[in-house]
């Protein structure tokens, strides 16, 4: 992100009286708090959010080292397998949200043919002996090529995977045959590519989750994907949306579309085009959007409501006050298993709202320094 881009984003403005163009059903949200704040404090909000973006840019200057490691590992992995087998990047390695703590997550696809893939997935999920045999075979191929230091495969994990560390000390996780994370990674990437503010707002909210100590999927807390969906949901739900109905406008995101098309986009790392159909474009700054996001989610009852990937708020069908429900069309199973997630989200947005009300904008946009998982030897 260049300095010019940052200045362009911070200097955006908007009209409080802009017409509603959202197709979301979140009409019960009252934005009087954020609109009142903007009348008196928008310049101050923009000043401090600009400071956050500059700190973020400074911290991401070394991301190119992670990119080099990822490119090197992917090149090494291509030499381990027949061309029929594809290793598709997912998560931050694919969705344009790479950061200094990023690992490389991959999905191994043994077949291009859908019928063969379905047969493989049925055996892999239902037949433990087949699963262990196949994972051992892949692990032996990795060891034979000496591309890193591998653990024993995680045969019985909720998502079975092989984990190894590359020679350049990058953690690599390989899962098998799962199409859902491929589609969801392309969804997030499409949103990030559509508008530069999407990624910046995701980085800001991720920072707040880290600051609150509730971001760590390996410790059964929230994942970065959960934060991504919160932001993407909000940007489609507001009366004056930043994001259009992305899934509706992007046929490659439809679950009815051949998943090989999503694979092609993520493996070739090309650009994704989404037509801009907004009648009245949203020109709010990142700072203004952050305050409006707080206003929005502080009015959501996470105990009784669920959110979806299209900007809608719906009632939970099941009585489960301990879990946060995301209606995610890319996954058949629930994507959020964080214990007491509704309470954690409510507490977070309550705290952020207090900062807004008390005019603590410097604290609201304070950059929480990210810890690097693995020290870059090139630095």
From TrEMBL:
SUPFAM superfamilies named among the record's database cross-references = Nucleotidyltransferase, PAP/OAS1 substrate-binding domain
Give the InterPro entries listed for this entry. Answer: MTPAP-like_central, NT_sf
Q: Which residues form the Poly(A) RNA polymerase mitochondrial-like central palm domain?
A: 61-189
Show the coiled coil region(s): none
Task: Provide the protein name.
Answer: Poly(A) RNA polymerase mitochondrial-like central palm domain-containing protein
Give the source's domain of life in one word. Eukaryota
């Amino acid at each position: 992100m260049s300095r010019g881009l940052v200045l362009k984003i911070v200097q955006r403005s908007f009209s409080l009286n802009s017409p509603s163009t959202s197709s979301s059903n979140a009409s019960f949200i009252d934005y009087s708090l954020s609109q009142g704040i903007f009348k008196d404090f928008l310049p101050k909000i923009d000043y401090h959010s600009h400071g956050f973006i500059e700190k973020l840019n400074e911290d991401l200057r070394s991301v190119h080292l992670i990119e080099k490691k990822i490119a090197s590992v992917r090149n090494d992995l291509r030499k381990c397998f027949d061309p029929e087998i594809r290793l598709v990047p997912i998560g931050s390695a694919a969705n344009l949200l790479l950061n200094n703590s990023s690992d490389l997550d991959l999905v191994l696809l043994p077949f291009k043919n859908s019928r063969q893939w379905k047969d493989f997935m049925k055996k892999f999920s239902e037949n433990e002996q087949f699963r262990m045999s196949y994972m051992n075979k892949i692990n032996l191929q990795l060891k034979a090529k000496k591309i890193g230091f591998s653990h024993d495969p995680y045969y019985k994990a909720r998502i079975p995977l092989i984990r190894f560390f590359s020679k350049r000390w990058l953690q690599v996780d390989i899962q098998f045959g799962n199409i859902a994370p491929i589609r969801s990674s392309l969804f997030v990437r499409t949103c990030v590519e559509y508008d530069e503010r999407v990624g910046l707002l995701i980085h800001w909210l991720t920072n707040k989750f880290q600051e609150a100590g509730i971001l760590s999927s390996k410790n059964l807390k929230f994942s970065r994907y959960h934060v991504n969906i919160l932001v993407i949901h909000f940007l489609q739900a507001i009366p004056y949306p930043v994001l259009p109905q992305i899934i509706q406008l992007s046929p490659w995101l439809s679950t009815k579309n051949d998943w090989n098309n999503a694979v092609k986009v993520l493996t070739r790392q090309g650009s994704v085009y989404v037509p801009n159909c907004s009648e009245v474009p949203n020109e709010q700054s990142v700072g203004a959007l952050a305050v409006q996001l707080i206003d929005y989610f502080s009015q959501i009852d996470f105990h009784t409501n669920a959110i979806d990937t299209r900007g809608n708020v719906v009632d939970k069908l099941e009585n489960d006050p301990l879990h946060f429900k995301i209606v995610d069309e890319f996954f058949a199973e629930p994507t959020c298993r964080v214990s007491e997630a509704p309470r954690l989200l409510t507490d977070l947005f309550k705290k952020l709202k207090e900062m807004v009300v008390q005019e603590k904008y410097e604290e609201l946009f304070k950059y929480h320094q990210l810890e690097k998982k693995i020290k870059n030897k090139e630095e």
